[in-house]
Automatic annotation (TrEMBL):
Descriptive protein name: HTH cro/C1-type domain-containing protein
Coiled-coil ranges (or none): none
Organism for this UniProt entry: Ranatra chinensis
Keywords of the record: DNA-binding, Transcription, Transcription regulation
InterPro entries tied to this protein: Cro/C1-type_HTH (IPR001387), Lambda_DNA-bd_dom_sf (IPR010982), MBF1_N (IPR013729)
Length: 145
């Protein structure tokens, strides 16, 4: 009747890279005689990017103590006395300098890490010099000397 011939094309989809890495695929390639190269990656699957730069023996030999500089206790007492003389709470002072009350608490206890910007804000609000030779003296309003 008609001279149509049916042509059937069978094509297999190529394997994905992840499928070629399976143990089953590697064994099949070995049986077929295909050269197979395998590598074992060191630290694969582990978070090894944050390794300390010093080894432990070097850290053990380290003699100096590595700590942050803290506020002198005298400065903390000065902040506390001036704040109380002005009738302010730690929370009030913290609100006026846009910091957390915990920062004021740390500074007064001598645990705070010195930040010149925060100390400068405290000086302006309390009206007392907190840095330098004239520590504890009353500051003049801006523009008057």
């Amino acid at each position: 009747m008609s001279e149509w011939e049916t042509v059937t094309l069978l094509r297999k989809k190529p394997q994905k890279a992840s499928a070629m890495k399976t143990e089953q695929a590697v064994n099949r390639a070995r049986r077929d005689g295909v050269p197979v190269e395998t590598q074992h990656k060191w630290g694969a699957g582990q978070n090894k990017q944050h390794i300390s730069s010093k080894n432990t023996a070097k850290l053990d030999r380290e003699t100096e103590e590595l700590r942050h500089e803290t506020i002198p206790l005298g400065l903390g007492k000065l902040i506390q006395q001036t704040r109380q003389a002005r009738g302010m709470s730690q929370k009030d002072l913290a609100t006026k300098i846009n910091e957390k009350p915990q920062v004021i608490n740390d500074y007064e206890a001598g645990r705070g890490i010195p930040n010149q910007a925060i100390i400068g804000k405290m000086e302006r609000v309390l009206g007392v010099k907190l840095r330098g030779k004239e520590q504890g003296t009353t500051m003049m309003p801006p523009g008057k000397k």
